[in-house]
Each structure stands twice: as structure tokens, then as C-alpha cells.
Amino acid sequence: MVPILMVLFLCLQQNTLVFGFDSFNKLQLPSIGSESYTFDSDNNGPYTGLNDGRIVKFQDPKTGFIDFATTTSNRSKKFCDGTHGYNVNTSMICGKPIGLEFNLKTKELYILDAYRGLMVVGIEGGVATQLSGETHFDYADAIDIDTITGVIYITDIGDIFSKHRPWSDILFKADDRSGRLLKYDPQTKKIDLLLTGLAMPAGLAISKDGSFVLIAEYLTCKITRFWVKGPKANTSETFLELPGNPDNIRRTDSGDFWVAVNFQKLQPKLIAFPLGQKISAEGKILQTVNFYGEYNATDITEVQEHHGTLYVASIKNDFVGVYKGLRC
Ligand SMILES: *[C@@H]1O[C@H](CO)[C@@H](O)[C@H](O)[C@H]1NC(C)=O
Ligand SMILES: *[C@@H]1O[C@H](CO)[C@@H](O)[C@H](O)[C@H]1NC(C)=O
Ligand SMILES: *[C@@H]1O[C@H](CO)[C@@H](O)[C@H](O)[C@H]1NC(C)=O
Ligand SMILES: *[C@@H]1O[C@H](CO)[C@@H](O)[C@H](O)[C@H]1NC(C)=O
């Protein structure tokens, strides 16, 4: 009860409304943990990466999810399937696909593997090819593709996971600023560093017109804007402060954005609940959805709107959450 009252209070403070929905369904995954979703140019999907390294595709309600791709050439299903992906050594063998995004023009699936960086696989799936060359990634996390130029933006969270244990230290104490924003140009096949000093940049989305990139900084509860074009090109500024820790940002067809926001407070006692916030390209909060009813206090990694349906991801669950009929 307390968290729900709390969220109402928060939202009223921000002059936004709390919305509801007509139905909630689960698409059962073969194993636990999916961080991010993408759909191909024929609207098939969702596709998602699992904690155990598999990239799977939702085929149809009868079949469910099928294996689609991997990020390591000799991934063993016997050893890897069902592993939890929290051990870096296991992930080196099994793969750790985190961010996924289709280039809808070329029909290629771009994959960010936490440790291998940027990879690509064709629409037929299979073993992905590494594109990041010599560039070192501590923990590559979020990806988006400029639909006009094909340029790919990616974030690396930095070395926070190897420096801080347990998770509560990361969340409530870490002043880590080792995150980076990078871009890959498929024409030149080069990776460029755009921004350093980011506080666990867990989410990323490019604006519809390609003029700026939004970066979710998990530790500082804010969204930073990096200008790609125009008079402020190559500079960054704070775009929006949020009521909790943001994870992925996903753009809608109309050019708004959904941010997965995890409200988490330790004092006076631990309270946590997952929210989805829809924001406009001007930085106005348009909708706030509370997922506590279906997710309890589980933290979520992504909220994605696809053809009016909301898909909600969490690395802690073994399902894709599907919300239909969003209403006031
Ligand atoms: C294949 O996986 C094993 C661990 O199971 C690893 O030691 C080896 O280096 C891998 N080989 C290749 C070519 O990736
Ligand atoms: C990974 O392997 C290295 C070398 O064998 C070992 O020192 C390290 O403790 C392992 N890490 C984990 C998380 O198991
Ligand atoms: C932004 O940086 C790129 C190199 O990364 C440079 O080519 C471009 O001219 C810069 N633009 C401005 C407006 O400073
Ligand atoms: C939330 O809690 C209820 C009741 O304990 C449980 O049935 C449900 O599976 C939980 N949901 C998640 C996503 O953990």
C-alpha cells in the first residue's frame, strides 16, 4: 500500500497523471533475464538476449521463443543454457548480449555484448560478428541506431561492477563516473568516443530527427542530452531529473521516449517499485505507469512501446511483460 501512495504523491508533485491499462500478459522465456527488446522490419519479435547468453526470438504463441543468435562461436548449450550470467567467466564462454537493435533498412541485428562490444548478425541469425575491433569495453550496455544515417550510438557503463560489491554499494554509495558514450559509423567502420564521465549510463536513445542523443545515468537519477547536430553539437546538458534510477530509454514511433525508472530508497526502510515514464522530446513527462501490481518491487530494465502495446523487461524474471490498452 505504501509504495502506491508514494507514487501517487510523487506524480502529483510533478503534475503528471498515473495511468492504468486493460490487460497484462506474460510471454514465457526459456530462461531468466532479458534486458532489452527489439522487433525486425516485418514486426516479428520481440527478440531479446537472455542472461545465459542466448538471443531468442518470439515465434508465435504456440511455439513461444526459439534460439536465434549467439555472441560466441563455441557456446555450448549444455553448459550455458539456464546459467544466470552473474559470473564474468561464464559470460565469456556463453555470451552476454545486453542491448539489441535492428537496422530496419539493412535488416541486420546489432547486438551489444557486455564484454565483446558491438556485434552484428543477419536476419537468418547464427553466430554474430564482432565490429568493435580493438576498442575495449568494461561493460557495454545500451544501443540505438540513427534511422536516417545508420550511425550507431552505444554506452559503456564502465568498471563499476568490478569495483563495487554488493549491488547495494553500487546503488546507494557509488560515485562512479567511468561511463562513456561512443558511436560506430558503418561507413568508416570506426568507433569514436563522444563523452566520458557518465554515471552508469544504462540507457540510450536518439531523437527522431537525429539531432540529439538521450543518455540515462542510473546513479544520478537523471537523463543527459548530448547534441549531435546544430549550434550545441558535441556538448551535453542535463535533460531531465527523475524520481528514481533510470535504465533503458526507448523512442516511440511518434518521437516520444519511454524510460524504465526504478524508485529505490533505503531509509527509513527499503522501498522499491518500478515505473515507466513517457517523456516528450521537449523533456515533459507525459505519462507515468506504475508496474508494482505485476512486478512487485522487482527492478525493470526497459519499457518499450510497439504498436500501442507496452513491453516491460527485467533481468530478474523469466517472462516478457505485455501491457495492452493503456488508459487514464
Ligand atoms: C571455446 O570455449 C572454451 C571454454 O569452454 C574456451 O576455453 C575456448 O577458448 C573457446 N574457443 C573459442 C575459439 O572461442
Ligand atoms: C574468473 O577466472 C579467474 C581466473 O581463473 C579467477 O581468478 C576469478 O576468480 C574468476 N572470477 C569469477 C567471478 O569466478
Ligand atoms: C564535433 O566533433 C566532431 C569530431 O568528433 C567534429 O568533426 C565536428 O566538427 C564537431 N562539431 C562542432 C560543431 O564542434
Ligand atoms: C509478485 O508477488 C506475488 C505474490 O507474492 C507473486 O505471485 C508474483 O509472482 C510476484 N511477481 C513477480 C514479478 O515477482
From TrEMBL:
It is found in: Vacuole. Pfam families: Str_synth. Belongs to the strictosidine synthase family. InterPro entries: 6-blade_b-propeller_TolB-like, Strictosidine_synth_cons-reg. One of its GO terms (cellular component) is vacuole. Keywords: Glycoprotein, Signal, Vacuole. This is Strictosidine synthase conserved region domain-containing protein. The lineage of its organism: Eukaryota, Viridiplantae, Streptophyta, Embryophyta, Tracheophyta. Residues 1-20 form the signal peptide. Residues 141-231 form the Strictosidine synthase conserved region domain. PANTHER family: PROTEIN STRICTOSIDINE SYNTHASE-LIKE 9-LIKE, STRICTOSIDINE SYNTHASE-RELATED.
